[in-house]
Amino acid sequence: MKEKDLLELRRQVLHMMVGTVIVLLFLNDFLDLLSFFLLVLLGAFLSFVSKFVELPIVGNFIYFFERKKDKKTFPGRGIIFFGAGALLVLKLFSMDIALASIMILTFADSISNVVGTHFGKIKNPFDEKKKLEGNIAGFLIGSLIASTFVEPILAIFGSLIAMIFESVSIKVSEERVDDNLIVPLIAGTMMYILRIYFLS
Fold it and tell me: Is 173 left (phi over 0), alpha (psi -120 to 50) or beta?
């Protein structure tokens, strides 16, 4: 396996581990919004400092998991945006929808990347760098896991719309908006709308 592919695999495993831990901590009342906000803030601070000083442990983490282009410009970008995306849905939605959204981000996004990279053959019509098989796999796994927190119909549509948006590049001032922000917000919004207007 190429070093680049190995790095992406490590990143996706970390992605799934972080999301699972966050959900478990909230489910068991070991973490609240304020504590989580402070953790995300600490991560952002360490990222900023790491641009200028090599920190113990943090430096090793960045070396092992960070993409080359982000090491100097925004070390720890993925995990910080993951935390920010999770924080937003926890603040905006009910706990069950928020946790389902985080699970869609955690597994649908990661599985789509792994399956698309290693097994995908058909180009996604919205983004030629991505493969359709990856998005389908992400949708199925995301729906299944999210349905442990919300009604299956919400999980299915939340995961479906999130995967559609995940495959489209959304840019602000020529800068691509991070998937870790888009995926949970889109999933949570879709599930919220469905519950309020169609299931209530």
Answer: left
Predicted TM-score (pTM) of this structure: 0.91
3-state secondary structure (DSSP) of residue 52: coil
**DSSP secondary structure string, 170-182?**
-EETTEEPPHHHH
Whole-angstrom distance, CA of residue 40 vs CA of residue 38? 5
Is residue 176 within 8 Å of residue 188, measured between CB atoms?
Answer: no
Give the bridge partners for 183, in sequence order. none
The answer, yes or no, to whether residue 90 has pLDDT greater than 70, is yes
145 vs 103: CA distance, rounded Å: 7
Contact partners, residue 9, CB within 8 Å, separation at least 6 = 1, 114
Q: What is the mean pLDDT of residues 124-136?
A: 83
Total domains, the chain: 1
User: Domain limits at 125?
Assistant: 3-199
